[in-house]
Write a structure and sequence with these properties.
The complex is a heterodimer. Chain A is α/β, with parallel strands linked by helices. In chain A, 44% of the residues lie in helices and 17% in strands. Chain A contains 14 helices and 14 strands. In chain A, strands 7-6-8-9-10-13-14 form a seven-stranded mixed sheet. The longest helix of chain A is centred in the N-terminal third of the chain and has 34 residues. By secondary structure, chain B is mainly α. Chain B has one domain: ABC transporter involved in vitamin B12 uptake, BtuC. Chain B is 74% helix and 3% strand. Chain B has eleven helices and two strands, in the order H-H-H-H-E-E-H-H-H-H-H-H-H. In chain B, helix 2 packs parallel to helix 4, helix 2 packs across helix 9 and helix 9 runs parallel beside helix 11. Chain B starts with a helix and ends in a 9-residue tail after the last helix. Classes of the chains: A alpha/beta, B mainly alpha. At the A-B interface, strand 7, helix 9, helix 10 and helix 11 of A face helix 1, strand 2 and helix 10 of B.
Chain lengths: 420, 291
């Protein structure tokens, strides 16, 4: 064959070759589609594996997956956890999310306890149409984004309390513990200047006066603050009955200085670092008497599932789970439950099924707010769903004081605290 | 009342800044090294004291001593592993050595920081205080530990002054800071002078770190800010000038405390940084700098 003939023939040959390969590809695709129904359900877990709080996320998720698989899986399909360390970085989280969906074919993703990270992932959940649930971020903006553009952002679910509902939980506890029991009347709000405290503080300012605590002042300080002496002295000069806290980036330092300066005013509110079991050691016991909001506590049976979970976690990993270990564990369970109810892993149907979630987990009864509420896909809070707890550090232990049904101790302050 | 509060709190924090910056400026003055792992060495001392006092349960005195010892060991390690090989290298041109050492100590600091975060998490830690309780001075309830901090800082600075100005070894150090070649011509081994200065620096870093851990507490995140604060105090005071650093430490300490009390704790560090920029414009060699 001469070269010219080859040139003439080349086009039809190419066409034939293309159509053959297209057919092969189509066949391959159809056969993978068949296989997929027997494939495992893959859940991507993107977390801050090096931090105290974040390291519990993949462990909690793995524990739930293993339990579900041991009981036969979801309609015969096993659950597989694919874990990614994001080094607390938004950019790395976005790359991990793309990899989870595009290469590892995750059916849903559990991601991060940092609000900034979750907010960076939210548009990607929308673009890649993949369900994402956060086990620990708090910013209200996450669900506000869903309200703004539901069709687009509906793939994101907020599996932990929003700042607004955390503030509400603190007020509910303060009403019983401080106003009713200790007859307190005045408070100063003390919080770090960060994205998550803006809605928290706004909520505090609204709900504290409603329960009968007059807000004398509102002090916001930089999260880089190391010397808290001026802050405590200023607050003491205003003579409030209690300091209502909103701290997460700081914790050890203000607590240590509160004790060494013997500030006579109790600290009550959100102090994320105090929820860590190592906080007593980090502060050399200065945390004695500090009150902090949480959704779980050692030895507290919030639901019948709480304690068995902690036992299993401790037995397998040798330490106690952080708050987002609980939520990540629950999330795997209710994702599995939603897939079972939907009968598919198709994202849109999964969203519909997750919206109808009614799951008793380890921190309470999980239900999501509807799409017409101001915070769609945020957890419902309050009696009957999730109330949260109010714990206090006493003699090296975290003791739960509120709500009374699950309390395992009584309020007790170190001697330098003065209450009327 | 507010006046006394600012006076007392400002004094304690300024004394601590002064001690931290003294060692930093000393090794610059004598050996021309800007040690950017300064903050990491301080944090290493704090974490060692925290582990010794908490996990090993050796009590506050021994815990603090172990912290200082670890500060010293880490500093000597910095000198022998990072700084000296670069100083003596024949492959690096003389005029580039400063930038090599700057980069190397910065990276070394990051390595120490990451190691601490890996082994002991990035949570902040406080060191068991040696003295507990509070004392009331002029109506201000002051932690006894704060007074202890200020007293120790000044004792150490006074001892350092005696050592440099009143002993033969100290005079050799002083001479080395003025003219290194002159010292060698007098028959003094320069490498011994450097080693002695680094050892003194190590003790200062250890003590400053442990006191900081007792007074305020630190985490692995504090590495950068601690180096930066020592650096800006030293630049403000004049690189290499110990008395300039002492004055600058008090200027910065009081400016920060006053801002926190009178304006807002959120803006604490801003005026001191503005002052630094201003001094750079009008007097680039710093308050008491020689060059």
């Amino acid at each position: 064959m001469k070269l010219t003939h080859w040139r003439i023939l080349r086009a039809p040959l190419m066409k034939a070759a293309l159509s053959v390969s297209a057919a092969v590809l189509a066949f391959a695709a159809s056969s993978t589609a068949d296989a997929q129904s027997k494939d495992p359900i893959r859940i991507g877990v993107i977390s801050e594996a090096q931090s105290v709080a974040g390291s519990s996320i993949p462990l909690g998720a793995q524990l739930a997956a293993d339990e579900i698989n041991a009981a036969g899986g979801v309609d015969g399909r096993k659950i597989e956890i694919v874990s990614y360390d994001n080094h607390s970085s938004s950019a790395e989280s976005v790359r991990a999310f793309q990899r989870a969906v595009n290469e590892d074919h995750a059916n849903a993703v559990i991601a991060s306890y940092i609000s900034e990270v979750v907010l960076a992932l939210e548009p990607w959940a929308a673009r890649l149409k993949t369900v994402m649930i956060t086990p620990g971020a708090a910013s209200d903006v996450i669900t506000q984004n869903i309200a703004k553009d539901y069709e687009h952002n509906k793939y994101t679910f907020h599996g932990y309390l929003t700042s607004t509902s955390i503030a509400q939980a603190v007020c509910d506890a303060a009403k019983d513990l401080l106003v009713k029991d200790l007859k307190m009347k005045t408070a100063v709000i003390m919080s770090e200047d960060a994205a998550w405290t803006t809605p928290l503080d706004a909520s505090y300012e609204k709900c504290l006066p409603q329960i009968g605590l007059k807000v004398l002042d509102h002090i916001r300080f930089s999260p880089d603050t190391t010397d808290f002496t001026p802050i405590f002295n200023k607050i003491e000069g205003e003579k409030p009955d209690v300091m209502i806290t909103g701290i997460s980036h700081v914790g050890t330092q203000p607590t240590g200085q509160w004790k060494s300066q013997q500030v006579p005013i109790p600290m009550f509110g959100v102090s994320s670092q105090a929820t860590n079991s190592t906080f007593w050691k980090d502060t050399n016991g200065a945390t004695e008497g500090v009150l902090f909001q949480a959704v779980s506590g050692p030895g507290v049976a919030v639901t019948p599932k709480s304690l068995p979970f902690v036992d299993a976690f401790q037995k397998r990993f040798g330490n106690v789970p952080s708050y987002c270990g609980y939520t990540a564990y629950d999330e795997v369970y209710y994702i599995a439950d939603a897939i079972h109810r939907a009968g598919t892993t198709d994202s849109d149907k999964l969203v519909d099924a997750l919206e109808k979630t009614d799951w008793v987990g380890t921190i309470g009864r999980v239900q999501f707010q509807g799409k017409d509420t101001p915070y769609p896909h945020a957890l419902k809070v309050g009696e009957g769903t999730i109330t949260g707890l109010m714990l206090q550090w006493q003699d090296g232990k975290q003791v739960n004081l509120w709500p009374t049904e699950v309390a395992n101790g009584k309020l007790k302050f170190p001697s330098f605290i003065k209450t009327n | 009342m507010l006046f006394w509060q600012i006076l007392i709190d400002g004094f304690a924090i300024s004394s601590l800044y002064a001690l931290g910056a003294t060692g930093f400026t000393l090794i610059f003055g004598v050996s021309g090294v800007l040690n950017l792992s300064h903050g990491a060495l301080m944090v290493a001392a704090v974490v060692a004291a925290w582990v010794a006092g908490g996990d090993l349960g050796v009590g506050s005195y021994l815990g603090a001593s172990i912290g200082v010892a670890v500060g010293l060991v880490a500093t000597m390690l910095t000198y022998f592993v990072i700084v000296r090989p670069l100083q003596q290298s024949r492959k690096i041109r003389e005029q580039e050595k400063e930038i090599f050492i700057l980069t190397a100590t910065l990276l070394w600091g990051i390595m120490i920081q990451e190691l601490i975060a890996y082994l002991y998490t990035n949570n902040a830690k406080t060191v068991l205080p040696i003295v507990e309780g509070v004392v009331t001075i002029a109506g201000v309830r002051t932690p006894a530990n704060e007074i202890f901090t200020a007293v120790v800082c000044w004792l150490v600075i006074a001892l350092l002054w005696l050592l440099v100005n009143r002993t033969r070894a100290g005079k050799a150090v002083l001479a080395a800071s003025m003219n290194a070649r002159g010292v060698t011509l007098l028959g003094i081994e320069l490498s011994w002078v450097y080693m002695a200065v680094w050892a003194i620096y190590g003790v200062l870093v250890g003590i400053a770190g442990v006191l900081l851990g007792m007074f305020l507490g630190v985490s692995s995140y504090s590495v950068g800010p601690l180096t930066a604060s020592a650096f800006s105090i030293v630049v403000l005071g004049g690189l290499g000038s110990v008395s300039g650093s002492l004055i600058a430490a008090y200027v910065v300490g009081y400016l920060e405390t006053m801002t926190a009390y009178l304006v807002s704790p959120a803006y604490r560090t801003i005026p001191a940084l503005l002052l630094l920029v201003f001094v750079m414009y009008v007097r680039p060699r710093g308050l008491l700098g020689r060059r």
